[in-house]
Amino acid sequence: MVENSQIQLVENLDLTAPALNRFVKPNGISKLVAQYGTPLYLIDEDTLHAKVKELHAAYTKFVGPLKIAYSIKANFNPAILRTFITDGITFDLTSIGELHFIKQCKAAPENIIYTSVTEEFEEYLEVLQSGVRKVVVSSFNGMTNLAKAASKIGVKVPTMIRVNPEVGVKAGVRASYRNGKFGVPFNGGTIDSATKMIKHLMDNDLLSFEGFHFHLGSQITDFSCFIHALDKMDAFITKMKKEYPNFQVNTFDIGGGTPVSYDEPVPSPTQMAENLVSRLNQLVDTHGIFELMIESGRFLVAESSILVSKIVNTKEYSEHKIVILDAGYHLLLDAALLKQEYPQEIVSIPKNKVKTTSQLPTKNIHLAGRLCDTYDIFPLSKVSSLNEADVGRYMSFYNVGAYSLVFNMPFHCQIKPPVIMKTAKGEFKLVRKGSSYERLFIEEGGDIF
Ligand SMILES: *Cc1c(COP(=O)(O)O)cnc(C)c1O
Question: How many Å apart are CA 314 and CA 368, to the nearest integer?
Fold first, then answer.
């Protein structure tokens, strides 16, 4: 049994500093806000394609087949889904709602992997009916429901088991910890363990064992957790092969977590892969070839998007200036939830039009959202540049493509802003209409007397 991996983590990483992806020039932003107002989300199609390429290229040294899967929970905007469909990647889904979206956008069912937390019978029935044949189960009850659905439809379903490797994870968001809600442990006294579930799958007419899945967390910058999890997987597969001579892992999905630079520099996907691929290749050597799946939400979409907001109010106290925006955490929830430091920049205007009333350094500026809520403060990034922050000026938040649009909420009767995509042809296309107060009033039941 391998307790401590022979593989050392690659040291001295050359880290990537936060990038301000200025895919729309300042005068372009001025034109767009004149037409659509603020707040306004902008998405760059080229960046989406480039991120898929970058992530794929990082793992080319893996000896087996490789699939990149987009975790659509990070951003389900249909224009983004359609962009990724043209890249031929896989989609990682967690709900029937996401399945509806991806079917409407016409992704092929063979490019879908379904990993839910709820794992209900009716849910699996719909998943299988729509042609999806790769399902990750995360509990014994879920596996039983999947078998029932498979029986009803009359198909045999390749089933993956989501394991919780219970390794320590240093990350923005942790998904693997002891007694956690995701996955099952390798061993344990109850039916909810990989050992017990594999036993059940090994000679099953309705489900076949396809492989393993784990997801350790989001925004992972210390890759030792992956190495520890792979060490545990290695030992577990060895044990299973002793019990079942024809035990074979066909697919191995190592989840998400590829980081994005917001405030601190982070390792690139290539550096991340450098740490993992030799260990993964060792697993192939020992246990035979498998298909590797790399999931990503954050990395694939974050840098593709900007949120443009307007400075609508300011006040000064001696050394400090409070700058109030027409955006709030209803548009960038992670600023409040995770204290995410999105890089910010005042949109530049011609020099002769700058009427700066004060020139306080960025660090003395406090960026506040429009909501009447204490938590509606935007932490500043080290690369933020706000010293021209004055009423009437526009401000861009960068790297907002992941986990922002999808959290839009009507707190304070706020409406969803429009979304514009800069297409690969360089055209600006409205891909989500903004909502209206009338629509929100009706959605909230205002038309029911
Ligand atoms: C959220 C999630 C991901 C994506 O994580 P990122 O950090 O956005 O890459 C991948 N896999 C699973 C199972 C997830 O729940």
Answer: 9
